[in-house]
Amino acid sequence: MGCCNSKVDKPSKKKAENLKSLGEPLKVAAISAEKPKLVIQKGKVGEKYKIIKLLGTEKHGSYFQVMNVKTNVERFLKEYIKAKTSKKTLEQVLESIETLYGIDHPNVVKITEVIESDESLNIIAELCTGGELTAKISKNKSFSEKDAAKTFKDIMLAISCCHANGIVHRNISTKTILYQNQESNSEIKLVDFSLSKKMKHKHALKEPIGSVQYMAPEVFDKEYNEKCDIWSAGVVLYIMLVGRPPFGGHKVNDIVASIKEGKLHLDKSHCQHLSGEAKDLLKKMLSVDPEARLSAQQVLEHQWIKSYNNDTISSIPLTEEVFAHLIRHHSESKLSDALFSFVATQISDSAEDKILEEQFKAMDKNGDGRLTLEEIESGLKLLSPGTNVDPKKLFSEIDRDHSGFVGYTEFMMASRNWKKTVQKEELEKVFQSLDIGSDGQLALNDFKNSFPGIDSSEWADFFKAADANQDGLISYEELKEYLISRA
Ligand SMILES: [Ca+2]
Ligand SMILES: [Ca+2]
Ligand SMILES: [Ca+2]
């Protein structure tokens, strides 16, 4: 597969009209700073991704570590073979993907593409290589309270963001929390939304599902709400701190009885090392009465979490620089947003991302995964006290989809150091992945294929600005110049 041919400088015979003859190319997901919509691309996944490693096999199909053949970006791929999957299951899978699309948080795994062929449905997501929380616990036996509190806060931030969006995960366990990479300070990601559900009203959920050991008592009674996730997270916290589950038993029935009874035995010897604050939080998360159980935001405000996570905005490095970008950035059009979003999916700087992510979390005072005008305003006051930037104007520019909140992606898009990003060598890969037929020039249809839904007047403006030699095609140098001038 021709992934790395460097035809970038060769003259091109391509004309915008002749593209149709190249057949139906795979579409790149149209990612923009606006609220993402689920775009199912039609095509063969093997034309776009090659398999690096088989990670596992289930009854519906396998899951793999894969690599984009044009950009070399590695991803996670889960396949559902249609011959092995019922129509109902496929519908549920699509529903859960739709649900996950609505969540935009650094600790929630991101689906990047969905590709469907006659034979299979393929979900492509960001790749986590650090393994499950389960593996980390069995390796270390248990966590110190200090280490647990950092990881657990991120778990709760992910859950809090789901709940703020009306989404119940329903399968929180040490198996659905993954480390992004092998580094000791790796981020965690909440994954596997296959059982997740959008809540329409209180006590709306009826199906008794999940992993038994983590299931809340009311789930067995088939009437419950988002508080079931708090219970499961309480079980996760208990396992992290104690090294074994709180409610055990030899048979499933024994475990269920033990959960319904809800006795924690925090005075027993295996819990002796726990601080009073840790015990208090466990009790309040594992309260049999869901009404008395803490909410995700209340957990985040609990003294145990706070005492080990005392980061304030000012304790995070480089924040002023981030704010400077935030203030300077002004995207002029939907097309420009889409182009820069696409660049962001292909060129990432993990060190920069981490700083921006910490900045976002520090500004997100109530931990619901989105920034209000007040949260942006107080961050601005703290870091740029003398600034004459109007926070309302700044806010409305960053809030691209006019939702009244600045989401994580919106924040990242606005605060990234674009000048640095677009001058990186990887920009060539961005160009190649847009270049259908790999002839070294981008015609209007190359762009339209990757960025659907842009008005023709915007395309005309773009070509006027970017096509320096006016030959109707955009070369690599022209694209680069255009992006630099607008970064
Ligand atoms: Ca917030
Ligand atoms: Ca928004
Ligand atoms: Ca040109």
Automatic annotation (TrEMBL):
Domain spans labelled Protein kinase: 49-305
Record's keyword annotation contains Lyase: no
GO MF term list: ATP binding; calcium ion binding; protein serine/threonine kinase activity
Stored SMART domains: EFh
Residue intervals of the EF-hand domain: 351-386, 392-421, 454-487
Requisite cofactors: Mg(2+)
Residues of the signal peptide: none
Keyword Chaperone: no
Alphabetized UniProt keyword annotations: ATP-binding, Calcium, Kinase, Nucleotide-binding, Serine/threonine-protein kinase, Transferase
CDD domains noted in UniProt: EFh (cd00051), STKc_CAMK (cd05117)
Subunit and interaction comment: Monomer.
Family affiliation: Belongs to the protein kinase superfamily. Ser/Thr protein kinase family. CDPK subfamily.
PANTHER family per UniProt: SERINE/THREONINE-PROTEIN KINASE (PTHR24349)
Stated name of the protein: Calcium-dependent protein kinase
Organism from which the protein derives: Blepharisma stoltei
